[in-house]
Amino acid sequence: MNYAQLTISNPMTKAITSCTVKRESRQSLFITHKWQYLCLHVPLRVGVVLLALASIPMAAHIPSVGEGGRPSLAPVLNQVKDAVVNISVTTRQNYRITWWDDWGRLNPQRQYRDVQAAGSGVIIDAERGLVVTNHHVIAQAQKVVITLQDRRTFDARFLGSDPTTDIAVLQIEADDLTDLVLADSEVLQVGDFVVAIGNPFGLGQTVTSGIVSALGRNQVGIVNAEDFIQTDASINPGNSGGALIDIEGNLIGINTAIISPSGSSSGIGFAIPSNMVRTIAEQLIEYGDINRGQFGVRIEPVTQAVAEGLELSTNNGVVVTEVIPNSGADQAGMRIDDVIIAVNGKEITNSADLITTIALLRIGQQFDLTVIRNGREEQIEGVVQEFQKGNEILPGISVANMTSSHPYYGRIRGVVVSAVDSRLSQSNLVVDDLILEINRKSISNIRDLESIDLEDRPLFLRVLRGTTQFRLIVR
Fold first, then answer.
1. CATH number of the domain that residue 469 is part of
2. Are 335 and 210 found together in one domain?
3. Which of 61, 201, 409, 447 could in theory staple to 37 by disulfide, Cβ–Cβ 3.0 to 4.6 A?
4. Catalytic machinery residues
């Protein structure tokens, strides 16, 4: 098993500098909003990419311009590029300076400085001035300035953000805007041509092209609710929040992250599909937050051993290991050893599929589950219920003890983040994070929190997210 270095490049999450991650290959995961671009040398290969694109026989329709019908993306880009904006973020970073005074004593002093960062965004409603971007681009921002392609600048108003899906919505007051309508990402197929537009390395608007490499990517470890479009279109630090469009100029995704050993593009980029963006953005615009519910089951993936034990013909789906009493699942008649294989007709192949699907449903919304019970396929109607928050330890952050069905139960001690209200929380914690330590004191259960002054600042947290441990400072 190799180890890789995980770098969170957003200066606003400065407490998470780096940590060691077990991976099958020596790669580093970089959130694509990064400001250390001055020390990077990135050869520009846009011409090579476009040349290769033009020389391949294409089934998709490509606009033509000029005599001889020269293949070009220019006609499409001229219609959409003004909808992609540059985002400049100012955050307040504090640090400690310590020196010896005249009496030989250590004299620590806290200093503050403003840190500048850059990202991208997409105008999705020109009339109302609504701009969608990534949560990690604007998290903990003191000031956000949006620059249009005609060089006009506007202070942005924060409407809401969702760390679970890494989506945020801003608003500006401006006239003569161009917007991109969110298309239906369900019609995408692997092999479709796509174009990425953004602000890599703070250079200004840049266009790159490629194809859809994969769909429905999850278990990547970037956020909790993952259903990414994977593309080989060149995406670099600063592209976060930018547009991924199809060959006809439809907005089909918001660029979010890359996997790379160097921090720059290596042909593996991820975008949030437009259908997820639409669902989350509508709630953020209306309520300023995502009020998620729960169904009330504990689940595990269907392994080969589970499939054999339950006499299943496939390894797809998730098996129910616990039904929470009085929950929506309990009321719907769910049972232990039920295997969930689809929700609203959408196939469920693993735990991440189910988590993401339920995370996008609203409280009170009904949905249809397809389950295998005792070897027979059955249909069950479920309802999303309000999440029971439990114990609030920080503004907007609630925790609960680990249950026996938790995958880390008995192996790691800690408390589980059970609910996050992004309107109140400034900690960058997300649901299902495990808090292992606070101020260097190990946390085994909620009772251990009673001996810690949670009002004191800063708080030093050690957190486990998936398979990744990192330090987090709450100020």
1. 2.30.42.10
2. no
3. 201
4. 136, 166, 240
